[in-house]
Write a structure and sequence with these properties.
The chain is an alpha+beta fold. It has 10 helices and 21 strands. A hairpin with a 2-residue loop joins strand 20 and strand 21. The termini are far apart.
């Protein structure tokens, strides 16, 4: 591609690089100049214009952006992503429904390394999305790119994005009480909102005494596809009431504790085929906490191992929440 000023008489068929006022109308940048446009510019006193002129082997910005988008998302339905039309060298990618974005970072980094004029920007991996959420944008910075560079970027980026839809329809939240009083609805309301964002529903409320036997029985009889436990007293050890109740019910505790704050006191396990998440107390707040990251992955069928949770610590220092009983402060440890 050649870029630079040319005499007005030599600009027919070139792409105008900067918007200019003609004799009676404004000529927008990016327009392929026709005779009528040149006449307008001449009437306004322009004798030369800055343009981009495509050469053999060049691909126009819009065609290039669309080609790269089609490489990233060759099957919109299977990948759960919708492509916008191309304009000004850009194509946007949108989630078709709620779920979790998964991406191949190495593929995307390789695509972005091919040519600085070819760019793909995305939301982070494992980012929760709703229908219509923009998950990525492709922008061709220049007015055209070499076909060979486009082919290379398209090849390394093929199929690098997808939105995973939730695989469960319902969840049961089991709450424990440390006295005869029924816990407030605050925690259930916060979890209801979280699940609704994933297209899931809570089964009827279950509240049991904060004792192993009662909680184990509740876990065994819980109807939801996914089981959540929110205890009236904080779970502070792998042998505490809630993890012990899961084991008593015949389940398995895969991980207790996570390096995300708020959210340290989470545990993750299984009971038969059902995932079980022991929620930290901060889950009573609608603010982001470590349980969100685990819940969203589990709900969308992404395996979550102890190693996965350990890796969440980098970036796991989240925003402080007002309800925290012991706010972090300098010197508090």
């Amino acid at each position: 591609m050649r870029f630079g000023p040319v005499p007005l008489t030599a600009a027919r068929g070139a792409i105008l690089a900067h918007s200019l006022q003609g004799g009676s109308r404004r000529i927008a940048k990016g327009r392929v100049l026709e005779e009528a446009d040149l006449a307008e510019l001449a009437a306004a006193g322009h004798s030369e214009v800055t343009v981009a002129q495509l050469e053999d082997g060049d691909v126009h910005e819009d065609a290039a952006a669309l080609a790269l988008a089609l490489a990233l998302v060759p099957d919109e339905s299977a990948q759960g992503i919708r492509l916008s039309g191309a304009g000004a060298g850009r194509v946007n990618l949108y989630a078709q429904g709620c779920g979790l974005l998964r991406l191949d970072r190495a593929q995307l980094e390789a695509a972005n390394a091919v040519d600085p004029m070819i760019t793909v920007a995305t939301v982070p991996d494992c980012h929760r999305v709703g229908a219509g959420t923009m998950v990525a944008t492709i922008k061709i910075i220049s007015y055209a790119v070499p076909e060979r560079a486009l082919a290379q970027a398209s090849g390394v980026a093929r199929g690098a994005l997808r939105v995973l839809a939730p695989v469960f329809g319902t969840a049961t939240l089991i709450e424990t009480r440390v006295s005869e009083a029924v816990p407030p609805e605050k925690g259930r309301a916060a979890m209801t909102a979280r699940l609704q964002r994933l297209g899931m529903a809570l089964t009827p409320r279950m509240v049991v005494a904060h004792r192993e036997a009662e909680l184990a029985a509740a876990l065994t009889g819980a109807p939801g596809d996914l089981l959540l436990v929110l205890t009236g007293s904080a779970t502070s050890d792998p042998g505490d009431v809630a993890p012990a109740a899961l084991r008593q019910a015949g389940g398995h505790v895969a991980r207790f504790g996570m390096p995300v704050d708020p959210g340290n006191l989470l545990f993750l396990g299984t009971l038969g085929a059902k995932p079980v998440i022991g929620l930290p107390g901060c889950a009573r707040s609608p603010a982001l906490n470590g349980a969100d990251w685990v819940l969203e992955r589990v709900a969308c069928g992404v395996p979550v191992t102890s190693e996965d949770i350990a890796a969440m610590g980098v970036g796991g220092l989240l925003k402080e929440i007002p309800a925290r009983p012991r706010p972090r402060r300098e010197g508090s440890g």
